[in-house]
Write a structure and sequence with these properties.
This protein has 9 helices and 10 strands. It binds NADP nicotinamide-adenine-dinucleotide phosphate (NAP).
């Protein structure tokens, strides 16, 4: 595995990282989760991306990972870079969501209990809050680092203007933003118009998620919504369904042909296409099986010739 420096920092991340948004919920096999984390470590994929709401149900992915850490991988803590986030709905009432100091401090405390950790390596504000003053959110993030509960701070899905403002305030507070997370893949290139250049300008590491458009860029749906346990077929996967797959089918078929002509399977082609961009620090995949993880890791060994 190759590692890339995150912006202007001391941190290196693997080119391919493992996210636990899906596949680590309470209905997923514990044995499969253990195998995924173990194989990731063997492959040099030492960066694990969580959030308080990952599951389902919310909290389940952190509980699963925390149990694995304690029972199986405790001796490997310092080899790992563990991320979590808060800012999406977690509990009822006015404090269970968004970006207030009350929500972020309580959210991280709950995450640490589920993860059975004293600190995470990076804590993200999961999404910008249109109503809480950014100064309050930044003050919460500062308090979190000063209290030792996170080593670094990240932001997620911040549009460029809010991202620049938050970065300025974080720098003034003496805790520069380490990472910015946003969606970027061959089907969704919006980031090129704003988040990607903004992140590079701030010398912050870019961590891009859904690089396979939740599996669509593997070509697996070109002949229907299969297999039955794939994300588009699962009822607990609310952001990918047959309609969305259908609307992208033509574009995926075109990319599949492009990858075929380059002699590379579409999955690896789509990941290598992202890794071609030096502004990106790490590509965050969401493998469901060890075989998928291994195939994705191969993309880090490729270089493809494309100027697009
Ligand atoms: N900050 C945010 O708001 C945010 C939002 C979304 C995601 N994320 C992070 O990004 C991570 C990755 O997102 P994602 O899960 O959408 O990524 P993704 O890699 O685009 O999609 C993962 C899905 O693709 C399929 N897949 C992966 N490798 C494959 C392979 N080699 N062959 C065939 N199918 C393969 C699997 O689908 P099947 O299950 O169908 O097999 C897997 O569940 C998340 O876990 C999370 O950590 C962050």
């Amino acid at each position: 595995m190759r590692y890339r420096r995150c912006g202007n920092s001391g941190i290196l991340l693997p080119e391919i990282s493992l996210g636990l948004w899906h596949n680590f919920g309470s209905a997923d096999s514990r044995e499969r989760c253990r195998a995924l984390v173990g194989r990731a470590l063997e492959l040099g994929i030492c960066h694990f991306d969580l959030a308080d709401n990952y599951g389902p149900p919310p909290g389940a992915a952190e509980s699963c990972f925390g149990e694995l850490l304690q029972k199986e991988f405790a001796g490997h803590r310092d080899e790992m870079f563990i991320a979590t986030k808060a800012g999406h709905l977690m509990w009822p009432g006015p404090y269970g969501d968004w970006g207030s100091k009350k929500h972020l401090i309580a959210g991280l405390n709950q995450s640490l209990r589920r993860l059975k950790l004293d600190y995470v390596d990076v804590f993200y504000h999961h999404r910008p809050d249109p109503e809480t003053p950014i100064e309050e959110t930044v003050s919460a993030l500062e308090q979190i680092v000063r209290s030792g509960k996170a080593l670094y701070i990240g932001l997620s899905k911040y549009p460029p203007r809010q991202f620049h403002r938050a970065c300025t305030l974080l720098k003034e507070a003496g805790i520069p933003c380490l990472l910015h997370q946003f969606r970027y893949n061959m089907l969704d290139r919006d980031a090129e118009k704003g988040m990607l250049p903004a992140t590079a300008e701030q010398k912050v590491g870019a961590v891009v998620f859904s690089p396979l458009a939740q599996g669509q860029l593997t070509g697996k749906y070109l002949s229907g919504i299969l297999p039955a346990d794939s994300r588009a077929a699962r009822s607990d996967s609310v952001f990918l369904d047959a309609e969305k797959v259908k609307s992208n089918a033509e574009a995926v078929a075109k990319l599949n042909k492009q990858a075929y002509e380059a002699g590379i399977p579409l999955t690896q082609y789509a990941l290598a296409w992202l890794l071609n961009k030096q502004e990106i620090s790490s590509v965050l995949i969401g493998a469901r099986t060890v075989e998928q993880l291994e195939e994705c890791a191969k993309a880090a060994e490729l270089s493809i010739n494309t100027s697009e």
